[in-house]
Each structure stands twice: as structure tokens, then as C-alpha cells.
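Chapter review: from sequence to fold.
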Amino acid sequence: MIIEQVSYYGAHHLAFLRAVVVPIRYYAIGVSLAWPPAKVNLAEPGIRWNERVPAVGARIPPDPARNGYRNLVIAMRPTEPYATSAGVQVRYRENGHQYILRTHTSNKIIRARSC
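The C-alpha cell string follows.
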């Protein structure tokens, strides 16, 4: 599988900055307020942040159990105090066919006022 595009769909006031694919073994990277993700997010065993590659063009092996799992890590920035998306869309190609995966995990970002 080769990733061709990563984006948000149904996004409002949410800028997509970049996406990388990171080999992992046990733990997902989770949520971080910075880029790159905070060291605490990257410290879990099996997260191989130094082996990350840009998502577009990344080749994902067909057998994750044998070749290891991958995390899709996305950097985003709200452009207004309240930003949303309906989910993430990944366009990829496998065996000469193009597919689109849409997650149903919505994003809601509310920027807090500073003191």
C-alpha cells in the first residue's frame, strides 16, 4: 500500500500542516500540544520516531503482524478559537487500485483564552 494523500474532511477553521508515518510496536503516540510530539508521547517502548517518513509516498507493508504496525501522526493548527473536522481521509493505492479511507473520529479544538 502506498499513501497518496492525507487530509481532513468536513473541516472548519482547521489547518492541516503535515502528516508522518511512524513505526510502532505497542503504544500509539496519542495527543500532543506541540510538534514534534512531546517527549513523553515518544518515550513509550516501540515508538520509533526517528524512523518516521512523510505520509504521502509512504509504503505500508501488507502484513503488519510480521512487519510492525504504523501510526499516522498529523500536525494541525486551528485558525479560529473553535475548529472542527468530521474526520481524516487517506487516499491510497494497492495492487493498482485506488482507495479512500475515511475515519469517523471527529476533531474538536477549542482554544482557551490566556490569563
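Two observations follow directly from the output. The helical segments are 39-42, 64-67. The mean pLDDT is 91.
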